[in-house]
Write a structure and sequence with these properties.
Its EC number is 4.2.1.1. The protein contains 8 helices and 5 strands, in the order ααβαβαβααααββ. By secondary structure, it is of the alpha/beta class. It has 2 domains: about 1-40; about 40-225, 3-Layer(aba) Sandwich (Beta-carbonic Anhydrase, Chain A), CATH 3.40.1050. Strands 2-1-3-4-5 form a 5-stranded mixed sheet. α3 links the parallel β1 (about 45-50) and β2 (about 65-70). α5 (about 110-120) crosses α6.
Length: about 230
Amino acid sequence: MSPVATDFPVLAGLLSSNAQWAEDINGKNPDFFPCTANGQAPKILWIGCGDSRVPESVITASEPGTIFVHRNIANLFHLHDDNAQAVLEFAVQDLKVEHILVVGHSNCGGVQACINAAAAPVEADAPEATPYDCPAGSNAPLNRWLVPLVELVRATQVPEGRDALDFFIEESVKAQIANVCKTETIFANWANRSLEKKVYVHGMVYDLGTGRLKDLGVSRGSESLEV
C-alpha cells in the first residue's frame, strides 16, 4: 500500500498547521478566502532566493494575494531563462504589478560558493573549480546556473574594507536588476506612453541576523529609458 502524506510526521504537522491557520483566518474574516479565490491583484513581484529562511510573505507580514513570487538559487535572473521571463511577463502585463523587487540575503550560500570557486587556483590538466561538488561537475544544473555569478566575482574587485560576501551579495542584486531592465517586457512597459503607472525595479537585501530589509538605493524606472 502506498504511503500518504500524513504517514510522515513532518507533513502531518504541516497539514495540521495549515488547518489551524485556515480556521483562524476564517474566524477573523469569513470573506477572506472567498475573495482571494476570485482573483489576485498583487502590486509587487518578488524575485528572491529559495532559501527557507527568507519567506517573503512572512518577513513582510503580507497576506496572501499581496506579492507575486519567483524564487531560485541565489536570486538570479538569467535572460535565457524562460521560467523567469514568463513570470516577469505575466506579472507586468497581466497582473499589472507596480514594483519588482530583486532581493538577496545575508550569508547566502550560493554567493559564497561562487566566491570560493572564483578564488580557486587554476591547475593545468585539472577541471575548473565549480561552486558545488556535483557528480556531473561543471555540467551539473546547479553549477551551470551559477556560472554568471562566478564570472561576476572574477571580474569585480572587492573594495578595500568591504567584506567579500556582503559586497557580492549586493553586486549580484544590482546585476540581476540590470538583467531585468534589459527584457522586452520592461522595455515595452517603459516605452508605452499610454500607461499611467509604469513599473519600477528595486534592489534589497534581507539581513538574516536582524530580520530587516535594506534598500540598496538602486531603483530604476521609465525615466532611465532613453526613447
